[in-house]
């Protein structure tokens, strides 16, 4: 089962509107089995646990679309790391060969991003993917993935400009895909 969750709390920009439109488009074209516009991390994880029950087993893939920063993803401004540190979550939601993909800006950026990658992949028990750059239309750069018990294989400097800020995605930046792609190239 392949699912998409997006932050449905903010609609002040074309990007934020695009999360819902893109999710619906994926569902309509049969590229996902379901979608949820979540208002909180609690709602998102409760919904995922219900999908596991409905599916009679763990999920194959989850994409999360929303805002991100170095080592973080957000729903309604709430940090995922704060949520999982204070709320019990069923960590049996994913298949061992599954994928949890953060379609967010810079979640794997810098040292915080690398630490998040290791911690979350070990916690959720499957491959986790995210980006080191700000993502948008049409490019998503700095895409990397990590399996449980692996070390991140990208530089903490990837995606940083001379001032240490996060770079925007671009055609010639490392590990770039187009926004409509829903597969990760082997080795990324």
Looking at the overall shape, the CATH architecture is 3-Layer(aba) Sandwich
Number of domains: 1
Instruction: Report strand %.
Output: 25-35%
Give the neighbour order of strands across the main sheet. 2-1-3-7-8-10
Number of strands: 11
Helix content: 25-40%
Structural class: alpha/beta
Describe this structure in words.
By secondary structure, the chain is α/β, with parallel strands linked by helices. The chain has a single domain (2-178), classed as 3-Layer(aba) Sandwich (Rossmann fold). Helices cover 28% and strands 26% of the residues. It contains 4 helices and 11 strands; from the N terminus they run βαβαββββαβαββββ. The protein has helices at residues 14-28, 41-55, 80-86, 110-124; strands spanning 2-7, 34-38, 59-65, 68-69, 72-75, 78-79, 94-103, 127-131, 139-140, 143-146, 177-178. Strands 2-1-3-7-8-10 form a 6-stranded mixed sheet, with helices on both faces. Strands 4-5-6 form a 3-stranded antiparallel sheet. Strands 9-11 form a two-stranded antiparallel ribbon. α4 (110-124) links the parallel β7 and β8.
């Amino acid at each position: 089962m392949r699912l998409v969750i997006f932050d449905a709390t903010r609609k002040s920009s074309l990007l934020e509107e695009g999360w819902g439109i893109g999710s619906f488009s994926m569902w309509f074209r049969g590229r996902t089995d379901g979608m949820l516009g979540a208002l909180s991390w609690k709602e998102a994880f409760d919904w995922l646990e219900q999908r596991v029950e409905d599916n009679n087993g763990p999920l194959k893939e989850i994409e999360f679309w929303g805002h991100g920063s170095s080592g973080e993803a957000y729903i309604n401004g709430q940090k995922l790391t704060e949520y999982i540190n204070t709320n019990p979550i069923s960590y049996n939601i994913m298949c061992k060969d599954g994928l949890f993909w953060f379609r967010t800006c810079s979640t794997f950026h810098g040292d915080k991003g690398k630490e998040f990658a290791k911690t979350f992949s070990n916690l959720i028990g499957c491959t986790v993917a995210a980006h080191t750059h700000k993502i948008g239309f049409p490019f998503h750069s700095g895409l990397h993935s990590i399996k449980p018990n692996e070390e991140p294989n990208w530089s903490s400097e990837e995606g940083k400009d001379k001032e240490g800020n996060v770079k925007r995605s671009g055609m010639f930046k490392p590990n770039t895909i187009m926004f409509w792609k829903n597969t990760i190239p082997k080795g990324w």
